What we know:
With 393 residues, the chain is of the alpha/beta class. It has helices at residues 7-31, 45-59, 73-85, 96-111, 123-127, 131-136, 152-157, 181-193, 209-212, 216-220, 246-258, 267-280, 284-304, 330-344, 376-387; strands spanning 34-35, 89-93, 115-119, 139-144, 164-168, 197-202, 225-229, 240-244, 311-313, 321-326, 346-347, 354-357, 360-366. Strands 2-8-7-6-5-3-4 form a seven-stranded mixed sheet, sandwiched between helices.
Amino acid sequence: MTDTAEPGDERQAEQSGQERMRERRRVAFAKAERVLSRPGPRRTIRERLAALQEAAPEVYDLDQPTDVYGNGIVADLEERVAALLGTEAAAFFPTGTMAQQVALRCWAGRTGNQAVALHALSHPEVHERHAFSEVSGLRPVRVTSEPRLPTASEIRDFDEPFGALMLELPLRDAGFVLPSWEELTEVVEAARERDAVVHFDGARLWECTVHFGRPLEEIAGLADSVYVSFYKSLDGFGGAALAGPKTLVDEAKTWRHRYGGMVFQQFPTVLSALVGLERELPRLPDYVRHARVVAAALREGFAAAGVPWARVHPGEPHTHDFQVWLPYDADILMEAAVRQAEETGTFLFPGYWNRGAPGISFTEVAVRSQGLEWTSDDVRAAVADFVERLPNG
C-alpha cells in the first residue's frame, strides 16, 4: 500500500508554505537596501515612533493638552482638511469604512433614496464585506464593472433611480485609474441631472492633482462630499476625514458617535496625519511624475529581457501607484522577487502577486521618496536581474 496525503494535510502544507513565504518576504524587505517605496506599515514600531517624535514638533505645539473625544488637536486637523479641500467643514473618523457609511446614510436620509450607485470594483463592494447593506441599510447598485470609472452616458442611462453616486478616485482595483477632468465633470453633471448627490471616495485623492491638472479644492469642489485617508498616501498611522457642507458634517458627527467612532484620545494618529500633510502632501506630485519614469523603464526592461508578454497598467500611471502584469503564476513571481531581495538587497516587487487569469499575475507598484533615487537605468538593470530568476530567464 502506498501512502496518500489527506486533503487536510495538503491544506496544512500549503498554509505552512505561505507562512514561510510571508516571513521570508518580511525579513527580505526589512533588510533590503533598495526599494521603490518603504511605507510606514513596513517599518518597526520603534522606527515609526522615532520618526513621529522627530517630526511632530514641526507641525504642532506639543505643550498643548491632549485631545478628549475629538477636541483640541483633532478639531485643528479637521479645520486644516476643510481648508485644503475648500469645504465648509470636516470630521475626523477612525476609519474610512465608517466615514463613508455615515456620509451616504446621511445623504440617503436627505434624498429619501437608499440606493448608492457605484462601480463593481469600488472599495465597499470588494473589501468591506457588504457593510453598506449589512450595517447601514444602504442598497449598492453597480453602474459598471468595466476597468475604468463610469461614463456620463452610463449614469444617464442607468435603469433605476439612486440617491447618491459614489466615485472612487482613483479606482484602485482597476489599476489606480482616473478619468480625464472633462470626463469627471460630465459624470458629475449627469448625476446632478438625475437629482443625485455625488460623493467622492477620495482615499487617495491627494495624489490626483497631477493627472487632473487642478488643485485639491477644485477637484473636491465637484462633489457634495469627500472622504480622504491619512495613511494611504500620507503615511499616517490611520484615520480618515469626511468633508462637505457644515450641516452634513454636523449630522455625520452624531452618527460617528453612534457608530462607536468617538474615540477617547487620538492624538498619536492625528499627529501622524498632520506630519503627512506637512511632509508627504507637497511631495506627492514628484512621486507621480517619477512613477511615470519608473513605469516606462519597467516596460523597456521587460521588452529588452525578452519576456513574451508584459504590461504596465496604466501605460502612463495616473498616480504614483500602478500595476505590473506578467505571464507567470503568482507563486513563481513571488519566489523570484523575494530571492532577488535576499541575494542582492534590491526588492523590486515587494507587493503580493495576484492571479489575474490562468498563467497571468499582477502586482501593485508604488513609487515614493525612496523611488526618487532610482534612475531609468537602475530600473532596467533590476528588471533584467529579476527576469533571470524566472523560468527560462
